[in-house]
Structure prediction request, 344 residues.
Amino acid sequence: MHSNLFNESFRIQACLLTLLFGALSGCVGIPTGQESAVVTRAQMQMGTLVKITAVARSESVAQAAVTAGFAEIRRLEELLSTWIPTSELSRVNAAAGVSPVHVSLDTWTVVQRAMQAAEMTGGGFNIAIGPAVDAWRVTEGQHIPTETELDALRPLVDLQAVRADLGEQTVYLEKPGMRVDVGGIGKGYAADQAVLAMKKAGALAGVVALSGDIKTFGHLPGGRKFPVGIQHPRKEEEVLVFIDLEDEAISTAGDYERFFERNGVRYHHIIDPKTLQPARGCQSVTVIAKEGVWADGLDTGIFVMGPERGMELVEELPDVEAVIVDHEGLVHVSSGLKDRIRKP
Ligand code: AMP
Ligand code: MG
Prediction:
């Protein structure tokens, strides 16, 4: 079955972030004199190419860790994908206005983190955006919804009407027609959980990359950090800057990921919950945080906030850094990152 956390309606162009250690595979000597194995495998999950790398003492442990990472992402996809009618989130959406739905702790946590991301970003991040995302779904003909269409949806994009009850472990959408969409945060959460599964399986270090959502732990053999390149939002083949990651997650939201153009205007997949139009302040937002769930939730929310307010938020948050390319193509780098980026 085709399953996807996201809708595939826009043109998919980007690789967003590039991992730069692809050549490393097999057995490598590390300075302590011990051998370590590096295994990388890729497969389609959550509607995107997922690439997992594990570093372990032996090839078999590295292989098992990669397998455990993929299994964890598959498990979460079955809970969170709104393309799978039996997923927990599909059941939550189907019960909108009817009843609360009991969910797993994973689903509850993703919804709860999404609510926190909404609060942090002044409502820029909003998982109740589902009906508006669907209205803009454009595989079926690059549809530009009218203001009347969007006005009818506005009451449904209402975070106050999303209830996540911890005691009962339920999620309830109070109004019929509401739909939550965790496409803006779910991959970051999945990267975090896949890393936990890999550690449990014995990996010493590794990377989980779900397209533009990457989480790293430990170091490459030889003690090197994991190098990542941020894609230039307007030049497909060009890397904007390189950053080395150490026990960190990185996530990029870009207007070049899924989009179409009409009369010189770019219509893309990140929707401003206030206007229900594609957000206009940025070309791309890359966030580095300790956890993927925050890197992912914040990149989307900050994209909506725009470069000025977005960077103010980043500077306030501990352990969060960002590279923001504004709508004119100007690159803004947070203070904690200035000494860490390398230009190509
Ligand atoms: P990302 O690539 O992480 O920015 O996620 C983009 C996806 O998040 C979109 O494809 C939608 O599914 C969803 N989305 C769009 N706009 C918003 C928003 N304002 N808040 C939360 N999720 C959104
Ligand atoms: Mg995101």
User: Anything to note?
Assistant: The two ends are 41 Å apart (CA to CA).
